[in-house]
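Notebook p. 47: complex prediction with alpha-D-tagatopyranose.
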Amino acid sequence: MKIRTATLSVLGVLALVGAPLTASGSGASASARSSQPASAVKSASTKYTIAMVPGDSTDSFYITMRDGAQAEAKKLGITLTWEGSPTFDPTDQFPILETLLAKHPSGLIVTPTDPNALTSLIKEFDYGPVVTTDEYLTDTSFLTSAITSDNVQGGGEAANACATLTGGTGGVAVIYTTPGTTTTNLRGQGFIKQIKSKYHKMQVVATEYDNNEASLALTQTESLILGHPTLKCIFATNTYAATGVARGVVDEHAKGKVFVAGYDSAPDMRTMLANGSVQVAIAQDPALEGTLAVEYVHDALVGKTSLIKKSVHLPNITITRKNMKEPSISKYFYKTS
Ligand code: T6T
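Predicted complex, structure tokens below:
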């Protein structure tokens, strides 16, 4: 039986008084409890452990999220293990998740790289709180919390930026990542909805998937510029898309003619904004996602369930060349180590 937030408050009280605790929840019988793995049994003196699995281990977005999580875990005296695949791919993420779960952590934080493919494996972790960050699962019924950015709003914001840059006329295109990436899909949907509902003299001339590869986004951008003479703005829905699109615009000598609204604020984004190959970056706050995720796992473990929000959409930050050096904005550039 899954520990749900409603039953965790009882478990948390038991933990505080040092009573043997198990995954079974408040309604479980003593015999059922004794059959739980020893590692699931917590007492007040036991340190909690959290397994955290990012979308991938190389992207500055997830590294920044890890740092936020690590800092919060340290504050709370929790041991956090962070492990991910270098690629954003459910097939590669699966065995990592499986290995970490076999160690019976007290809680799990995961960025699922597919909305469905990992659900049954994650559900096997049925004795502790599970929080997703960034990406969405289709089935959220068993989650303690799902924390992400407001991706639809971010896409709409990118559309507003394109409209301002182009005077509200001309063609626009969207570069998505993979069909299974829920965040970038929502950003594109938010963008297209805003263009169609608000900017009647702008047209969506093309949408592409770059397979999360900057090199593919680059060649797609070159083809888009050559194939669509009315194209005036491209929305690149994540870090790699933005890098590739910016390079494609430069290679085609289209800087200043084809504008770029990018997502994310990886370190390279500073250069791209400064040299005018990207005009606007919609940045997220991954450090806060990580901090909140650890906080909610801890709240669930100690029974402070009233503090947990089941679904969180954090606001985005719009970065331009003009504001990028202001300390209140520059702190949102992601870190690489
Ligand atoms: O945009 C982020 C993240 O939100 C998305 O889910 C995948 O790509 C990034 O990690 C940036 O590369």
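Notes: Residues 1-41 have pLDDT under 50 and may be disordered. DSSP finds twelve helices and twelve strands in the chain.
Next step: compare against the earlier run before touching the bench.
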